[in-house]
Amino acid sequence: MPYRKRVPEFQAVIMAGYGNGLYPLTEESNMPKALLPIANQPMISYPLSWLEASGVSDVIVVSLNSGSKKLGHYLDRVYEGSGSLHITLEVVDDNTGTADALALIKDKIKTDFIVISCDLLTELIPHQFLDMHRSEDPTVTALFFEPNKGEGGPSGSSKIKDVTQYVGIDANNSQLVYLNNSDVMDSDEFSLRMSLLSQHPVLNITRLLQDGHLYVFKRWVIDLISVVSQKRNMASIKEHVLPLLVKSQQQKVLADREGVTKVMEAAMAAHPSTQKLALSLSTTQSPENTESEKGEWKSPIKCKAFVAAKDVYCGRANSIPNYFEVNRYYTKITDKVRNPGATIQVQTQVGADSLIGEDTKIGDRSSVKKSTIGAHCTIGKNVKIVNSIVMDHAVLEDNVKLEGCIICSGSKVCEKSTLKDCEVGGGFRVEKDTNSRNEQLVDFQEQ
Amino acid sequence: MPPKEKVESTEQVLQAVILADSFDERFQPITLETARCLLPLCNVPLISYTFEFLAVAGVQEIFVFCCSHSDKVKAFVKQYGKQSNMKIHTIVSQECMSVGDAMRELDAKQLIDTDFILVTGDVVSNMKLDRVLEEHRARRQADKSAIMTMVLKKASPQHRSRAVGDGSLFVLDQTSKECLHYQPVKAFKSTKQDRRMTMDMEIFKMHPEIQIRNDLIDCQVDICSVEVPALFTENFDYQDIRSDFVHGILTSDLLGKTIHFHEVHDVYAARVRSTQMYDAISKDIISRWTFPMVPDSNLQAGDCYEYRRGLVYKEKSVVLSRTCVVEEKVVIGANTQIAESSVLSNCVIGKNCVIGANVKIDNAYIWDNVIIMDNCVIQHSIIANNAVLEEGVTVRKGCLISFNVTIGAKTTVPPFSRLTTLPEDEDDDELVSEPAVVGASGKGRVFKEAEDSDDEDEEEDPKNKAVNRLAYDLKELALEGQDDSASEFESEASDDEEEAVNPAEELDREVSATLERAFKDGHSVDIAALELNTLRMASFSNFHEMRKRIIPGVLRNIDVTAKPGSGKTTKEILARWGPLIGRMIHDEDDQVDGLYILQRSCASPVVATAVFTPALRYFYDNDITEEDAILKWFYSEKSQQGSDMEKQLREKTQPMIDYLEQSESEEESDEEDEDSE
């Protein structure tokens, strides 16, 4: 079916970043973050199918230079000619922030747009989220979710930095009015402006929510990003753009100084909102916030937060523990055949919570529990794999024991090795009788 | 749980404590002559509403705690007690100056032995307390440290029965129903603390999700355990139950007590805290928000109001003349007479009043036995018992006219006047009337508030007091206060500025500080460059911004008159710090940009103009700027525009340009030569 030209409601941008939190999995020798397998499926396929389900067809995948070839190859192979998704790959320099990347593809975005990170995996029903944007017409709608505590699964070797995000959401109209990170906040005192509280008399502040990196922006925000980035660094959506918009809701001085008001007015003049016209003609709609006093500045900017219900799964595979957690969850719920075409010896046990890829061979008396094994792997005799992820083409020789490990594609673990909470880089060879804990085993040639 | 205990707890007598005094002076001068809780609200003494509220809640025993005018309160309670099923006791303590004192007294007398309801004598509410009590008891069973449950009512921040000057902010945990932080909110936020809500970060450790509420009416109905009075005794400096006690308990790590809340909807709850609230609550009662506590339910023995169309309540014995107009929302007490052509709207008129012909009363509260003669106009005021307004008197808005005041014929009482007949000095027996205010035949004087000379360290913004007065107008007050910038919106703007300092200015300051340090301490160029680069990254700035600040910063140090060897000549400064400028310049665009900056800064007063050519020379000699860039700069339009000074500077470089062009053409010809070979 040929791709029909029509005016889409939303365009979507998928941010395929480097994945700093996932080192060493994302090294050149393995694969870019977007292609890391989750339940033996490349990560990016999840946001893509989410977008497909939401009815968005025009998708721009923004990839960093490194890894863009592999990603492009994958996208061509799988999505080329697929009826419902029209994917364009945009390659930007390494070290480009998410907001910078948006500024670079400014001309390609014609409508309100969705920005989603390639590491967001969610079972949120797309229209629930998008309907909030459709009905309230805010400047931005952002997804927040409460991360699953997990089951205390393996955390790998890395330690994650502990930055808590404090999110303030108006309980009456789910407006996002406060965002701050614990690392820049006063550690003794929590302080808020009184005027904020008179505008938002019921304000929930929580430190449990995480930014889902799924946003719907108005088209003009991209103009704003490019205007502001001329003045100062606007690298990241989460760190710079969203806080600026949130603050501009209350602080007129800031909004004027940063040019937010100007850009917004220009955009409004160019595309007058039909919503406003509709409201003025409506006989049932009463003007919002009639009680706000006259003369008070009413910001035209509105940020909304969509908080995912607790029973709706959301996860971000942006660090090794999170990657484990997301993978564990999707391995558990996947409805794919558990071991398609794998050769498994009779005396080998594969737990029902595990997933084995195609053409993988597993030798005698081995056991696989709570693990995901990729395709074309060769696993020897008497191998024990618990709580681990083994990617495609890996070789595990006899008597190897893995617990809480990630074995990247093409690597080889030689016989009698025992690894616990380790990450083995792509193409790495773990020598015989290695006994490691909490280590990252990587080739250092590239550094 | 042993069943025996359960039986016991249900059989316990439910006790309540009413604080009859409010410990403030907002109703003065009226409260100089009678107790606050006996003021009539829609012709019924305030405390009757509280009694009624407690009776509905199932309270069996009430302690009325009174200080000023205790004899009057006692007499009233005695009277009331006769017809009530509740046991009502009065406790008199003349020395009490605050809620804290009252609670300490209560603890000393050991009258209370179970959880009790603590209310003030001015609460008007129709809520039921059974749910709250249940919750409170369940919590106490589970956790002994939950000492108090506050009952809070949800409303919008601008709700009229939410006192403007007495707002309060609560930080709550909705899952555990715990109150985590309390802060009073003032109407005019003149100090920085007032404009911010501040709480301890520690709270987040235990309570990851909190809710900040600025929409609750706190009518100070608390379910207290017996520990509460004891805690007041322990902490002898606690005065107010909210700003001292609640705040103290919540911020104290040592006590380990918790305070909970219960949120109510769809009921009425308010407190007559001020004259402004008196006005608001009266209107709520007339409009039947407080049902069943409305005038026609006749709370007081002997009353017999009937409810008529247009929210008019009238006793049978009222005499209305044929032509008088009783508009909406009016209450008229027994035996009152209203003469021809008078117009009443939105007002309450007491018993035995005589209102003459052609009188206009709007928004006013007229108590018992008041005589208003012909042609008077009364707006938005309170007139107490036995007052007399002679013919043609006009009372402007916001007045409080106390007992027995007489206002002479044809006098106009200015807005917000407070009149009394009590002599100014307690020792004087004789009242000295002020004819300027009350007229020639009048009786009364202007009441002056006692100067707050006591040890109140915090200076109260007078406007915050004014806001609680009857008929206040926030806008008017804001206009008055324009000169001292305390108006909320203005100061709000300045607050924004404070918080987000202009990044450009901040960078200015930081760069000049860094340069100064470098010059003074004689840093090496490497260190200075490192510092400046860090600064650039920290402030998300770029090299252009840095050049704009560093070039003039370096050149400023040049003293053209200095002798060689002093370290201040053009040459020496450039030799020492020129490389620093070089660090900020990379490609050709940077070089051209650097030259513009050089040109502009030499034309401005901070740098001597004589520095320009040597500096340019230095830039060229040290390859900071290459000849292409210099030529590009010279021929660009931008360099030829600008002030006269800038143009002059450009012209001065003509010889150098000539030289450069010459050498360039030579080079070119060399190349050509080579090509031709």
Fold blueprint:
The complex is a heterodimer of chains A (447) and B (677).
Chain A: E1 11-16, E2 37-38, E3 41-42, H1 45-54, E4 58-64, H2 68-79, E5 86-92, H3 98-104, E6 113-117, E7 120-122, H4 126-136, E8 140-145, E9 165-170, E10 176-181, E11 189-193, H5 194-199, E12 202-206, E13 210-217, H6 220-231, H7 237-248, H8 252-257, H9 260-270, H10 274-281, E14 303-307, E15 314-316, H11 320-333, E16 343-344, E17 349-350, E18 355-356, E19 361-362, E20 367-369, E21 372-373, E22 378-379, E23 384-386, E24 389-390, E25 395-396, E26 401-403, E27 406-407, E28 412-413, E29 418-420, E30 423-424, E31 429-430, E32 435-437, E33 440-441
Parallel strand pairs in A: 1-4, 1-6, 4-5, 8-14, 16-19, 17-20, 18-21, 19-22, 20-23, 21-24, 22-25, 23-26, 24-27, 25-28, 26-29, 27-30, 28-31, 29-32, 30-33
Antiparallel strand pairs in A: 2-3, 6-13, 7-15, 8-13, 9-10, 9-12
Helix pairs in contact in A: 3-6, 6-9
Chain B: H1 3-11, E1 15-19, E2 40-41, E3 44-45, H2 46-56, E4 61-66, H3 70-82, E5 87-92, H4 99-109, E6 116-120, E7 123-125, H5 130-142, E8 146-154, E9 167-173, E10 178-185, H6 192-195, E11 196-200, H7 203-206, E12 209-213, E13 216-224, H8 227-234, H9 241-251, E14 258-264, E15 269-271, H10 275-286, E16 305-308, E17 312-315, E18 319-320, E19 325-326, E20 330-332, E21 337-338, E22 343-345, E23 347-349, E24 354-355, E25 360-362, E26 365-366, E27 371-372, E28 377-379, E29 382-383, E30 388-389, E31 394-395, E32 400-401, E33 406-407, E34 412-413, E35 418-420, H11 435-438, E36 445-446, H12 462-466, H13 474-480, H14 488-499, H15 503-521, H16 525-538, H17 543-555, H18 570-583, H19 588-603, H20 612-621, H21 627-635, H22 637-640, H23 644-652, H24 654-676
Parallel strand pairs in B: 1-4, 1-6, 4-5, 8-14, 17-20, 18-21, 19-22, 20-23, 21-24, 22-25, 23-26, 24-27, 25-28, 26-29, 27-30, 28-31, 29-32, 30-33, 31-34, 32-35
Antiparallel strand pairs in B: 2-3, 6-13, 7-15, 8-13, 9-10, 9-12, 10-14, 16-17, 35-36
Main location (chain A): cytoplasm
Pfam families (chain A): LbH_EIF2B, NTP_transferase
Keywords (chain A): Cytoplasm, Initiation factor, Protein biosynthesis
